[in-house]
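Re: [ENG-882] Designed sequences occasionally contain unexpected residues at chain ends

Forwarding the minimal case from QA. Structure tokens:
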């Protein structure tokens, strides 16, 4: 996580600390990436991958990746309805049968709404898109199996602990990757190496 300097507003410092303190499932590999600089005066961006960590641990998991960006403008932005904005992306390869489901986009959007609720991540001005891409090969490539990818883009104005919003996004990422949800009160075990 970035180290704030003296010019960083205390609210953003607190948000950075909450993000740094939040632990996601061990199947999620999180790293900091360059944050956008034109949208807001203060921002942090994280990238994550799920699915190829330990094949013995999660052999049935499809590949999934994404980005989580937390923006802060102390003056606020009207469209945000606040001074913070979370902008997320989740991409995942899906089973071809699941990709054929006409309700896939609605189901994927429900992952966002449900994850925010389950994480206790209070928010407003939630919006986004779900895109399904189905690829079918022909001719010399006809032997390739069909491929389906879903892309979930969502943004919202967070209230409260920024770590809860990171946890909600992490849950969407894990759901898209096909990981089963963890029951309440159960911590994931870290595999031995």
């Amino acid at each position: 996580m970035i180290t704030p300097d003296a010019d960083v507003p205390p609210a953003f410092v607190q948000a950075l600390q909450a993000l740094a303190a939040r632990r996601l499932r061990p199947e999620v590999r999180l790293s900091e990436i360059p944050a956008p600089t034109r949208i807001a005066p203060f921002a942090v961006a994280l990238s994550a991958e799920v699915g190829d960590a330990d094949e013995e641990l999660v052999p049935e998991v499809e590949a999934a990746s994404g980005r989580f960006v937390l923006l802060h403008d102390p003056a606020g932005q009207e469209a945000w309805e606040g001074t913070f904005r979370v902008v997320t992306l989740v991409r995942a390869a899906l089973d071809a049968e699941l990709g054929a489901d006409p309700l896939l986009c609605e189901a994927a959007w429900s992952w966002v709404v449900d994850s925010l609720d389950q994480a206790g991540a209070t928010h407003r001005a939630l919006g986004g898109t779900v895109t399904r891409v189905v690829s079918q090969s022909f001719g010399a490539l006809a032997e390739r199996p069909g491929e389906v990818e879903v892309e979930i883009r969502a943004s919202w104005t967070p209230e409260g602990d920024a770590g809860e919003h990171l946890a909600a996004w992490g849950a969407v990422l894990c759901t898209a990757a096909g990981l089963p949800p963890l029951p309440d009160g159960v911590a994931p075990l870290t595999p031995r190496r």
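QA comment: On inspection the terminal residues look reasonable. Helices lie at 10-21, 96-99, 104-119, 162-177. Proposing we downgrade this to a documentation issue.
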